[in-house]
Amino acid sequence: MRRILGIDPGSRVTGYGVIESNGIRSVHIASGCIRVADKKFAKRLGEIYRRLSEVVEEFKPQEMAIEQVFMAKDASAALKLGQARGAAICACVMAELPVFEYTPRMIKQTVVGSGGADKDQVQHMVKHLLKLEQKLASDQSDALAVALSHAHTNSTLYSLAKAGGWRR
């Protein structure tokens, strides 16, 4: 079993989720949201870095997976999201964790089976796959979806490599 930290970055709310997985079976270890909305932007980035460093220290993941930035209508929001991702990635790199990145579409495809799935579908599948009863915040379930996507994708790639790769 590998311990994976999934991160759904945001400049105001950053979700995190820690799972253990062998690529087939996954278990929820911890998850939550880092809320930093009431601070100046530079302070928010510092807080994301500091609090994710604490999560890494407490739960000792072996790998980190994070959602890639997508270009929304507002370029300014995309830039802020990219900076929040940078703070999160730095916290994990400083802890010497390997970092893996996934597009939102790939995460949805892996967890739900459809790259166009909505947030409710993602949350439903996350709760089902991890056998969770409690209500999850949207950012929290998205972070767990990132971790699950990494666990399943990475396991498939590892199995293919072990078997000699694609064969025609």
TrEMBL record:
Give cofactor(s), names only.
Mg(2+)
Query: Could you say which residues bind Mg(2+) 2 here?
Result: E67
Protein keywords: Cytoplasm, DNA damage, DNA recombination, DNA repair, DNA-binding, Endonuclease, Hydrolase, Magnesium, Metal-binding, Nuclease
Q: Which reaction does it catalyse?
A: Endonucleolytic cleavage at a junction such as a reciprocal single-stranded crossover between two homologous DNA duplexes (Holliday junction)
State the coiled-coil residue ranges.
none
List localization entries. Cytoplasm
The EC designation for this entry is 3.1.21.10
Q: Which GO terms describe its biological process?
A: DNA recombination; DNA repair
Q: Which residues bind Mg(2+) 1?
A: D8, D139
- MF terms per GO, please? crossover junction DNA endonuclease activity; DNA binding; magnesium ion binding
Residue stretches spanning the membrane: none
User: Self-association or partners: how does it assemble?
Assistant: Homodimer which binds Holliday junction (HJ) DNA. The HJ becomes 2-fold symmetrical on binding to RuvC with unstacked arms; it has a different conformation from HJ DNA in complex with RuvA. In the full resolvosome a probable DNA-RuvA(4)-RuvB(12)-RuvC(2) complex forms which resolves the HJ.
> So what family is this one in?
Belongs to the RuvC family.
Protein name as it appears in the record: Crossover junction endodeoxyribonuclease RuvC
| Source organism (scientific name) | Solemya velesiana gill symbiont
List the taxonomic lineage.
Bacteria, Pseudomonadati, Pseudomonadota, Gammaproteobacteria, sulfur-oxidizing symbionts
Gene giving rise to this polypeptide: ruvC
